[in-house]
Amino acid sequence: MFKSLLQPRIDRNLKEENCSGVLRVIGDRAAGKTTYMAALARWPNAEISSPVELVTPANKDGEYLIRQAESLIEQGLQINQTRLANDVLEIKDYSLRIILKTADNFSFLNTIFNLDISCKDYSGEFFSDVLHQTNSQLLRDYLNDCFPATGIMLMIDATTHRKDPEYARGVDRLLVALAGGDVFSQKRRIALVLTKCELADLWINRHRPKFVTEVRFPTIFKRLESWQDLGVGSVEYFTTSAFGMTGKRYLKPNSRQIYRDRGGVAAVLEDSKKWRPFGLVSPIYWICTGKRLLELDGD
């Protein structure tokens, strides 16, 4: 009943604007790709000042993400790594609607702004192994699935800087493969997303993603900047955390490390009641619109 009383006012005063995007999430095994997507779908304990009003699932795979968040992440457990699919049709296609608030300072006055995304989360083996199989039918299948995407989220565990040269080779192969098979006139957007930035040495520079990438992953940074200079696409850099921080005056990561080695950091959520990720929507918004909304970076 309450909703029905409000609906006429909303319809009269607000216009609705939709923007859709098809995304592919690519990264190494330890990058936290599925955890990122589950945290986005769950969207827990958002700040009242957040530009994001709501995140809702739009298909069964989107609903699956919420179940993963509730049954695993919130229980202090890890999400199982995504297995390599021998048929790209088997890859889950997460559909979500992200609703942004109507506010002067977010440039959406009198507008309900919806981001409708369809996102496939490729297994780490695609980035680490399949990309190096030049004549593989599996590689061709994955690339054919990748070509129609609005943009690519290249997700990297920010603690794995020692693997920069190794990652750069994978990025090289990906860019070459995309260039060889992309027949679309629209320039491709690649968002390099650094994950696990709740850790102290990353948190202090979370608002300087390009700087962090250049310092920690100089080889990847040069590859992407050179690709962008060719005029075939655009690159932006982002810092994110699926777990976020706790505390007010003295902040600390809301995560508990299981182990840390050259392959990255494995961690689980520490306190589900204070779970508040940050930076999750910003790369998606940029891929879908081509614009950077700074208020989303720290959200």
Output the keywords.
299 residues; Rossmann fold; disordered N terminus; alpha/beta; two-stranded antiparallel sheet; 7-stranded mixed β-sheet
Please summarize what this structure is:
33% of the residues lie in helices and 26% in strands. It is α/β, with parallel strands linked by helices. The N terminus is likely disordered.
Total E-strand runs: 11
Global geometry? globular
The CATH superfamily turns out to be P-loop containing nucleotide triphosphate hydrolases
SSE arrangement, N to C: HEHEHEEHHEHEHHHEEEEEH
- What is the helix content? 25-40%
> Under CATH, the topology is which?
Rossmann fold
SS-based class: alpha/beta
- Portion of residues in beta strands equals 25-35%
Low-confidence region ranges: 1-12
In the CATH hierarchy, what is the architecture at level 2? 3-Layer(aba) Sandwich
Mean pLDDT: 87
Major sheet description: 7 strands, mixed
CATH class: Alpha Beta
Strand sequence of the main sheet, in spatial order? 2-3-4-1-5-6-7
- Rg computed from alpha carbons, rounded to a whole number of angstroms: 19 Å
| Count of helical stretches | 10
Estimate nothing, just give the exact number of structural domains. 1
First-residue to last-residue Cα separation: 32 Å
